[in-house]
Amino acid sequence: MRKMAVLLSGSGRTLDNFHERIVAGDLRAEIQVVVANVANALGLEKAKRYGYPAFYARDNEAINQILAGYDLNLIVLAGYLKLYAPPEALRRAVLNIHPALIPSFCGAGYYGHYVHEAVKARGCKVSGCTVHFANEEYDAGPIVLQRCVALEDSDTPDEIAARVFAVECEVYPEAINLVDTKGVDYFWDRV
């Protein structure tokens, strides 16, 4: 079972998904702590309602001081919008989800709505999401899972975002379960 810290910057929609799937028994994980780098992030309020310890921390050092108080074997980035530098012991145990099919539309500046606008502007026929391990470079760590969604020419960036997020809700928990089954090192050692 994965003992997770959830890092977020915003509304906590992915936290909602994790919580619901843990309660349903579909996600083999326990959320130990939630940390946001935005003081008034709605995700912090949701975490408290769910009964998770929830904290604001302005930077990597402050986040890592909080995480040091918990028994963790996975850190999941759930709409966390900064480059995160984990403690050394968890350096290879940080998962992220990106709202595109890496290596397309990824890297610095490609997050959230910017990704979906770029996908639309390029006229892509598919988009999707990628769950990958994070490292010191945006969207460059080993890929765990990817899923495609078909697009229509008439789709707006908001419609693309909604389609991709629906798939994210399925694939992120599935990826965490896969990491729980295969172990973190499996993914780093195969690339």
Helical region count?
A: 6
Rough outline: globular
- The mean pLDDT is 95
Number of strands: 7
Order of strands in the sheet with most strands: 3-2-1-4-5-6-7
Second-tier CATH architecture of the largest domain: 3-Layer(aba) Sandwich
The percent range for strand residues is 15-25%
The CATH topology name of the largest domain reads Rossmann fold
Quickly name the level 1 CATH class of the largest domain.
Answer: Alpha Beta
Topology:
Layout: E1 2-8, H1 13-24, E2 29-36, H2 42-50, E3 54-56, H3 60-67, E4 74-77, E5 94-98, H4 112-122, E6 126-133, E7 143-150, H5 157-182, H6 184-189
Parallel strand pairs: 1-2, 1-4, 2-3, 4-5
Antiparallel strand pairs: 5-6, 6-7
Helix pairs in contact: 1-2, 4-5
Could you please describe the fold and organization of this structure?
The chain is globular. Strand 1 (2-8), helix 1 and strand 2 (29-36) form a beta-alpha-beta unit. It has 2 domains: 1-91, Rossmann fold (3-Layer(aba) Sandwich); 97-191, Formyl transferase, N-terminal domain (Rossmann fold, 3-Layer(aba) Sandwich). Helix 4 packs across helix 5. Helices cover 38% and strands 23% of the residues. The protein contains 6 helices and 7 strands. With 191 residues, it is α/β, with parallel strands linked by helices. Strands 3-2-1-4-5-6-7 form a 7-stranded mixed β-sheet, with helices on both faces.
